[in-house]
Amino acid sequence: MGMGFRKGVRGIEWGTVRHIALAWLVTLPAAGVMATGAYWMLTR
User: Fold this and answer.
1) pTM over 0.70, yes/no
2) Residue ranges of domains in the chain
3) d(C-alpha 27, C-alpha 24), whole Å
4) How many CA atoms lie within 13 A of 7 on its CB side?
């Protein structure tokens, strides 16, 4: 994204940006659910 931006907004591959954003939106809640499950199992 950084090198694409060097060429201007048209140089950015928006499909790649969308995939990165989607990955973060999936990863963070999934990590939270896993951490909650681990905490629940270890404190019972």
Assistant:
1) no
2) 2-43
3) 5
4) 7
